[in-house]
Model the fold of this input.
Amino acid sequence: MAVVTYRDALNQAIREEMRLDPSVFLMGEEVGVYQGAYKVSRGLLDEFGPMRVVDTPITELGFAGVGVGAAMVGLRPIVEFMTWNFALLAIDQVVNTAAKMRYMSGGQISVPAVFRGPGGSALQLAAQHSQAFESWYAHIPGLKVVMPATPADAKGLLKSAIRDEDPVVFIEGEMLYNTKGEVPEGEYLTPIGVADVKRTGADVTLICHSKTVSVALKAAEQLAADGIDAEVVDLRTIRPLDHETVLTSVSKTHRAVVVEEGWSFAGVGAQVVDVIQREIFDELDSPVLRVTGADVPMPYNKHLEKASKADPPKVIAAVKRVMYLEP
Amino acid sequence: MATTVVMEALSPTMEEGRLVEWKKQPGDVVAVGDVLAEVETDKAVMELVARAAGTLLAHAVAAGTTVPVGQALAHIGAAGEVVAAGAAGAAGAAGAANGRETTPVAPVAVAAPPLQAAGGRLKASPLARRIAADRGLDLQAVTGTGPEGRIVLRDVETAGSRGTAPSAPLAASRPHVLTPAEPAAAGSAYTDVPLTQIRKAISKRLAQSIGPIPTFYLTAEADMTRAAEAREGLNALGEGKVSFNDIVIKATALALGQHPACNAWWQEDRIRYWADVHVAMAVAVEDGLITPIIRHADRKTLREIGAEAKDLALRARERKLKPEEYTGGTFSVSNLGMFDIDEFTAIINPPEAGILAVGRIGDQAVAYEGQLAIRKRLRLTMSCDHRVIDGATGAQFLRTLVRMLENPLGMVW
Done:
């Protein structure tokens, strides 16, 4: 298998789908001439021309609305947000129009659009540009929320998202774009709504997604040195949530820690905990714990920012608590 | 849904409590933190506060009743709400089902978690319950090692493999599971020193000879004439009274600072030498005695000690002390001088290793500077736990103490 970066895997997905389906097009700020703020759209303007790779003004609500309209009349837009922090301006189109249209039209009109861009924090981008909004979108019936952690998943899931008949919120990670991984040769699709066991283990299940997958894997490595065998479940899709993979794993290990980048209150992990305690109460040997971002606007200060993020030491501490090794 | 008010563990050792008086009546609206009742524990009369807001529905027990920790006392809910008979009857279970109900109010100094949940309700993880049911194991016979005695998977597995309840041996071995002594970090509150072989032999032989605490006594007499003059001078300032007892506490604390070997706890497999000096002073109360603590007595002025001792003694007699105010002493002082006792021996309050018994100060004819003179004299008797303090060690401490009392300026030197 070829080793490619996360950004190039996304580029491959868009390129392949645009070659296969002339109704697929890309729009957003700087996607064309500048080749993308994060170079995900490198070379696409040259290959597909300005009718299918559209540079927009800095008007998130406006171009998101254009994307929804285009999808309603039969095109398959990929709407790139420079980051999901900026997409707050466009959330009305995503939540009130894209997510509702199939339902409110009695099934007559679908919105096969993909809204994509990086979410969460990078490094020292401060309070307004370091936010993880997946739980906001996952709250909305009518939206799918996809968050790949690896290049292979990024490519396979983006292709599935583009082909999906309904709106997909596709949240990438600025800190993930440069990460490398093996990507299968040739055409493949990764199904939406299926989690992936990134590491098998017997003692405790770490449930994570997107950037926290690497946090959980690092924690698992360190725990292994202490003789604790952690299983790492990458949700990959937040909505629809893959109950089966989560429940199978926790039924095996009897203990779980949910790790996420966003804030704790009403976060993705809260939903995961709800499913676990409701479905497999009798398999639990300890309360499920969560490791989340600190409940504060992200500090700009480098040390405070680091302290605010979910990291391997916090995951390890939570694992030792669910295993009754530490108070 | 009504919240059950239960008898809470208001002191570290409390197993039952007597409901002295209801402060809220059925129908009263209560807020979180409101005092619901006064409860007499094994140590003091404490306030039981509301953990939920609403209307107090009914008293499940009458004032004057003694009930075990965890038993339901009342319910808080919506006005007019009827609490199912079962809820009131299954008192302990209903109360403990809400984990917050059994949490002690006062922050108690770090103690090992109780092996069984307070109130007797059995706590087990869902998985432990299922496995116990599958194997026909009686959870009552299993000792929980999780928080608050929760039975978790490993406990069920251990119990299953042994076939019998391991509770007694586990409980008995509790003091010995302490980790070996760690080198003390700078600024730590105490230093643990594991027992040397000679100390082990001494402790074993002496404990065989006399009680569980092999005690010996050292008596010395101090000339208090100058201390009496100093006290008069201080009191003449009119800024608060200083008693002889305050002077003895201060001098004891300073002497302990110079002789840390006497400022220690016996800990079975080690001796804990405290870095700070917290002097416990025995206070007689109506039907017993209690030992409130003057913390950092070596660093406090006489005036501070005087004010604090007065306040603690007053509240001790009213039984209003909080647990943290009468636990954690490193050495005790007991004074019966006010009862005209010349001298006596005091019983050590374990795990402390020493206690000072203070007699009365009286005029005595003694040889003073080569002549017969009337001097104010005080007899001090120190009880020492021989496992911690040897004769010479205690004697050196007592000599320092006597010198300080005889020359009070030494205390500010």
Remarks:
- Residues 3-102 of chain B form a domain with the OB fold (Dihydrolipoamide Acetyltransferase, E2P) fold (CATH 2.40.50.100).
